[in-house]
Amino acid sequence: MTVTQTGRPAAVPNTAEDILAAVRALVPLLRDRSAQIEQLRRLPADVVELVRATGVFRMGFGTEFGGPALTAAEQTRVLEELSYGDSSVGWCAMVGMDSGLFATYLSPTAVREMFPTLDVSTAGMLAPAGRAERVPGGYRLSGHWSFGSGIAHADWVFAGAHTTTGGELDRDARGKPNWRVLLLPPGEVELTDTWHATGLAGSGSMDYEIDGVFVPEERTFSFREPRSRTGPLSTPDLQMRKMPGVPLGAARAALDQVRQAARRCTDPATGRPWSEEPRVQLVLAECQAELSAARHAVHRSLEHRWNRLAAGLTQADLTPDERVETMLARVRAFRGARAVVRRLGDLAATASLLDPAPLDRRLRDLETMCQHFMAQDQIIQSAGAFLLGGAPRNPLVLGILD
């Protein structure tokens, strides 16, 4: 038994099976509310509470804190299902559940103080867009960050920053700026409503600003300093692994929608049922094949990596192929999901544009998702560079901080 943010006692699911079942039960409501979520440009308060009650926000907390300790593949599966209902809800949950993953880098005392219940959401930007000046007991944080998905309902806001001492950048032994992540209550953050995107409109991914706010040392962390140096949660790419669940779930929803429509539609030119049209049969089968292949690649790579690290190996023990496997599968999931829904839109033609048009909404959501750096060429270049002994443009996706 736990207590929700509204103060009402509630039995929140605390196993992978129960969380997934609770999310599945919520999907019809999310579909009914999807147009409203898009128009509001953020998640309605009651939808946030319904998501909270499924246990999604607690998925990353380990058993030492009473959490369900879901694996990366289990987290991804839950996010697929949630995104099947609504892409913006899935995206916000994907970010919001990082609270438990960040707990790996905080002291147990800080975790219990900051998260008196496990069903709290986080939002923010890890990139060091701010400066954190060292002061007694912590830091004075200032800066401006963008793309704070879910920040309007977050219980904690995180912000990446370079640390400074006396106004000068702190640097490591190789001269690189020191990067730290700081967590603040939302009341200490000023939001700017900049989110007017055509896709993931309901994610409320607005800008936020922090001006000289004191952050205690214990509410900050560095990915260089996990509490454990081994295990699946010891590498700094941990929050990226479940991201493919959102595009995979969105594409599956679009594919199922067109499959259902194909059973009742007829071709206006021939009068034949869509279900008998070779063109329709071919497109649907090829989309099914692409989506299934992308999904299996994601889950296979996540499970393999998790099991290897859980057996006591460190990241350095993994082969180069193992190091790049999850990141390449992730890119393929984003891009493959978009390609599937684009093709479905071409198949449906003008019918995909009518209002309301969930297929059009899914395509806009996926186009926006694919503008995230996680789906960009820099990720593929980084994998290729690592395999060839070159310089990855984005080493963090490989779990490299140097």
From TrEMBL:
Boundaries of every Acyl-CoA dehydrogenase/oxidase N-terminal domain copy = 30-103
What domain of life does the native source organism fall in? Bacteria
What InterPro entries does this protein's entry cite? Acyl-CoA_dehydrogenase, Acyl-CoA_DH_C, Acyl-CoA_Oxase/DH_mid-dom_sf, AcylCo_DH-like_C, AcylCoA_DH/ox_N, AcylCoA_DH/ox_N_sf, AcylCoA_DH/oxidase_NM_dom_sf
Q: Which GO terms describe its biological process?
A: fatty acid beta-oxidation using acyl-CoA dehydrogenase
Where would I find the Acyl-CoA dehydrogenase C-terminal domain in this sequence?
247-376
GO cellular component terms, alphabetically, are: cytoplasm
The Swiss-Prot or TrEMBL record describes its family as follows: Belongs to the HpaH/HsaA monooxygenase family.
Please report the name of this protein according to its UniProt entry. Acyl-CoA dehydrogenase
The top of its lineage is: Bacteria, Bacillati, Actinomycetota, Actinomycetes, Kitasatosporales
